[in-house]
What we know:
The complex is a heterodimer. Chain A is mostly helical. Chain A is built from twelve helices and no strands. Chain B folds into two domains: about 1-90 and about 175-325, P-loop containing nucleotide triphosphate hydrolases (Rossmann fold), CATH 3.40.50; about 100-175, no CATH class. Helix content of chain B is about 35%, strand content about 25%. In chain B, α3 runs parallel beside α6, α4 (about 125-140) packs across α6 (about 160-170) and α6 packs parallel to α7. The chains are: A mainly alpha, B alpha/beta. The interface of A and B includes residues 221, 226, 230 and 318 of A.
Amino acid sequence: xxxxYLLRRVGYGLLLMLGVVVLNFLLIRLAPGDPAVxxxxxxxxxxxxMLESIREEYGLNKPxxxxxxxxxxxxxxxxxxxxxxxxxxxxxxxxxxxxxTILLVVTAQLMSIALGVFLGVLAARKPNGVMxxxxxVFATIGYAVPVFWTGIMLIILFASSxxxxxxxxxxxxxxxxxxxxxxxxxxxxxxxxxxxxxAIIYLAQYARLSRASMLEVLGSDYIRTARAKGAPExxxxxxxxxxxxxxxxxxxxxxxxxNLISGALLVETxxxxxxxxxxxxxxxxxxxxxxxxxxxxxxxxxxxxxxILTDISYRWADPRLRGKS
Amino acid sequence: MTxxxxxxxxKVTFNTRYGQVTALDGVSLHVNAGETLGVVGESGxxxxxxxxxxxxxxPMPPGRIAGGxxxxxxxxxxxxxxxxxxxxxxxxxxxxxxxxMTSLNPVFTVGDQIAEAIMLHQKVSPDxxxxxxxxxxxxxxxxxxxxxxxxxxxxxxxxxxxxVMIAMAVSCRPxxxxxxxxxxxxxxxxxxQIFDLLNEIQRxxxxxxxxxxxxxxxxxxxxxxxxVMYAGRVIEEAGADDVLDHPQHPYSxxxxxxxxxxxxxxxxxxxxxxxxxxxxxxxxxxxFADRCxxxxxxxxxxxxxxxxxxxxxxxxxxxxxxxx
Lengths: 325, 324
């Protein structure tokens, strides 16, 4: 992979981020609701002078384009502004919460890809078999069931009826001072249910997609060649076929990453996971513009990074794409 | 002496939406060590199915070997357990396919693909296998084999890819090499080079070759013996010169008449009228009857059997009755 290609991709990514920042800013200003009213409400009542002074203090009385310029210039210098509600820098609010969100989202992504592709490959081996039927039914259910419902059902089943996993949170309070490996194990223990809840929708999609993709690849001439040289079935499936079937899976994985982040918002709420999702949800209700925009900024940044990684993995998966841009 | 590979009365059926069709209806063939057997016929006559059955690569289902026997050095392959077949595939019987453009895996280097074939059947280190692969690429006439071994298939031309396929097929010195239309997708000049290479390989490695083709020109250049197939049956079998010079079956004659000759400008290219009938519509009579100018009532009623009537064995009532 050439470094100029990587540079160009990162350049496009930055340009895209600028667009995202501007769009977020304008969209939120277009939405109904006045932050000054909410802030004044929190302070215990709103007179017209009070609203004016709040607007003055937060710069909300300036023309929108001027506000936009101030915001974009701030972001370019790494300043995401101050939360209307917390009176803290947005960057700090997010820094405290982005770790758990990344952990949740990346775990869910890896879980759904690994399990989904594995199920899909098994299903493709016998397209009319039991496994194949199971994958189809499971995929339909997984896609149709809302993620918060799955989360609640899993909590009832595995945290209440059979208390194998903790109900909520990311860490047990009583283990705060334990050794690092005990704490790590504790976090993983807490992670399983929310990650699986989030993974289940996408897992089903990957299973279906890899089944279809594998079926197509398994009919190709080079699979016959692999069998003709005496390759065992396991190697035919997982080495010869899967590498070729990976491209559409990678494409979808890159696209799904954004959906995964919005799904994380719901899952974090259900499991009381201390991530960005909860912050976003509350900030929208509070009309806390800088915080909403900060969360959206980081969510978009994660999607842009995921897309760059997808592009890089394309080239790993398909040598025909190397040396082209 | 028993033949190296002996196919006897092989029946292969497929379940299709038209019901069960018989793709091979009692095919018998044999090939001896160091010999080249040409199998000719139009598309859909069962040549490739015969090859795939021999490799144990008929997709089952929908396919099924309904009867008969395939013996390699006396060992029965029909019904042999899958791991035994896998051990033989690529080692004792190898195959070259029609489409070099799509028969190599696009995501692995050609060197790795050949090395894999070696490692599947021989206890050698990956490094040694790759070195062997480079040596094989050199043997099949690929220039700067060391660099080409690190190329991916899309970086090579069609002719090069077919050479790679041949290198892969002969990597374990197979006893039988099946070449299924190995030159159909290639330029004419490259075709000749590939045939020369196959001849050399046969001389060096002593393999028996089954050359599947619809090209009588290729047969005259390569084959010692010829079996002509039509609609899932062998309808004529003899030495290559006998079939080329004295074709018995009207279908064989038709195939030979189709060879265009240079300097023969007096008439247009010949063709055999009609097409191979769909297998599910085959009746009781001779499958070629509808396309045959010599067919009579008996031909439409009764299936002719392969038997020596005239010069050499052919399955034709007309030949038997001396009408043709």
